[in-house]
């Protein structure tokens, strides 16, 4: 019994050392940059427009936000959020 407790005590630090590291903020190859997204303001929301906005921003993920929709406050450096007007046009776009 004592031997089993000793083996368990020795195994625990090994498990803790193998835990994955937390991701470093901004270390992604897909980090979104919203510097040039103003050019899309006022355009109708289409699949092609979304693809163009992703390409220009470098974002990995795109999230359309309909007029009046609520979004979470979580931050993702790989995400582009496109906020739409009531008539489905781009109101603004931001990374995060």
UniProtKB/TrEMBL annotation:
InterPro entries: Prot_inh_I78. Keywords: Signal. The keyword Signal applies. It holds the Pfam family Inhibitor_I78. Residues 1-18 form the signal peptide. The keyword Signal applies. This is I78 family peptidase inhibitor. It comes from Sphingomonas alba.
